[in-house]
Amino acid sequence: MDTKQQTQLLRTFRTAHRLTGAALFAFFFLIAATGLFLGWKKHSNGLILPNTQKGTDTELANWLPMHELSRRALAAMDAHEPQQAPHTLDRIDVRPGKGIVKVKFEENHYGVQVDGATGEVLQIAVRHSDWLEALHDGSIIEGPLGIGGGYFKLFYTTVLGGALLLFTITGFWLWYGPKVLRKAKRRR
């Protein structure tokens, strides 16, 4: 490639880099900020993700049945947030090593931690990490837009991932290209 072609390629990359950066600045800022918070969630002293409690027994054979643990979590959540009752289970995270189950609900970002052996509710707390994750990956938009199946999230991550790849390639060339041009000019 001669110096004229290299100079034109540098200009093209600089334009693509600048226009893409300007168009997607807010999204990259959002992804960076939420990614930073999500990286720190387990080290936030319970501010982003509630600390995991400890149950009384880690032996699963000594635990109450799962339907009973989920019933107790649902009852506790209905009593804690009666305006949204009845609540619907989203998922149950079983932590045998901690002796607990973590129960998450569809209607909000609350989590209930229940002792697996006694069924005692150990904690009801907001899981800020859930809405941060939805903001981070774009899935927070799907509900308000009425889009199901994760298609907006797929579009969002494809565009932003592609743009990040474009930034990496063009950014490298914007750094390396001038070095190549200077070396070519010295040879002449």
From TrEMBL:
Keyword flag Membrane: yes
Transmembrane parts of this sequence: 21-40, 154-176
Keywords for this protein: Membrane, Transmembrane, Transmembrane helix
Pfam families (UniProt xref): PepSY_TM
UniProt protein name: PepSY domain-containing protein
Species assigned in the record: Phaeodactylibacter luteus
